[in-house]
Structure formats: structure tokens, C-alpha cells
Amino acid sequence: MEAGPGDEDLIRVAALARQRAYAPYSKYRVGAAVRTKRNKIYSGANVENASYGLTVCAERCAVWSAVAAGETKDYDAIAIVIDDDQLPTPCGACRQVIAEFSPSLRVVLATTGGQRKITTLTALLPDPFLPGNLS
User: Fold this and answer.
1) How many domains are there within the chain?
2) pLDDT tens digits for 26-63?
3) CA atoms of 73 and 67, how far apart (whole Å)
4) Catalytic residue numbers?
5) Does residue 129 lie within any of the structural domains?
6) Residue 22 belongs to what domain range?
7) pLDDT bracket for residue 114 (50, 70, 90)
8) In a domain, 134, yes or no
9) 115 Cβ partners below 8 Å, 6+ apart?
10) For 92-111, what is each residue's pLDDT tens digit?
11) Is the pLDDT of residue 1 over 80?
12) Is the residue at 75 inside a domain?
């Protein structure tokens, strides 16, 4: 999949969010930014906790920021940025949370060193559990 217009801006917002990550235990700082089809961007960073199970990933933080602002549908893309040699990928919990709002979302994976990969949430999570599964 090719890069889309505005992907580099989305990556820059995610990279800035990564700088604000709270990761004193793992030192694995992640930033994410979700863009709506109305071109609004909401960012998030991972927030660790001494009680490890309470840690929140950057992707979920970004989605929850969008939801808190009233944006619950029509997401265009999400960028996830780390400072590592390997590209990031959202964990299973983040994939499921994103699918709730945009099951076919474009996913931009990036490193601060310039590596890029464009994929879709459908490719990362082919059979999500969606609200329709509850009926």
C-alpha cells in the first residue's frame, strides 16, 4: 500500500507524542496519532504503571482522545512511531479497540529513523469482534 497525503504530518504528530510517553520501566516509548476523515488529529503516548497490567498503549490513548472529543467514527488513518530498528505493530488489544471504530483503517507504521510501512487494520486483524457480533 502506498503512502497517502498527509501521512508524514500524521507521523510527525505521533513522533511528538512519543516524546511525551511515560515509560520508566520498559523504556519503550511509543507515540500514535489517529486522523479522522474531517482531517482532525488526536495523539496519544504509552503510559506505563508500576502495576504493569494498568499500562495503556499509545494507540488506545489516541483513540480514546478522539472519542473524548466526540469522534467515534470516520477515522482515516493511524500512525504509530517508535525509536527502534524494527517497525512497530499494534498489540492485539489495540487492534481490537481500533476495530470498534474503524475496522478497515489505514495503519502507518514508522520509526524515528525513517522506516515506513503502510498496511490496514483488516490485514492486521482479519476477523475482529465487532458490535454486530453481539446481536
Assistant:
1) 1
2) 999 999 999 999 999 999 999 999 999 999 999 999 99
3) 9
4) 59
5) no
6) 7-124
7) very high
8) no
9) 87
10) 999 999 999 999 999 999 99
11) no
12) yes
Q: What is the pLDDT of residue 73?
A: 85
Overall pTM > 0.85: yes
User: Which residue type sits at 65?
Assistant: S
The full DSSP string for the chain is ----TTHHHHHHHHHHHHHT-B-TTT---EEEEEEETTS-EEEEE-B--SSGGG-B-HHHHHHHHHHHTT--S-EEEEEEEESSSS-----HHHHHHHHHH-TT-EEEEEETTS-EEEEEHHHH-SS---GGGG-
CATH number of residue 24's parent domain: 3.40.140.10
Question: Which residue has cell 489505514?
Answer: 106
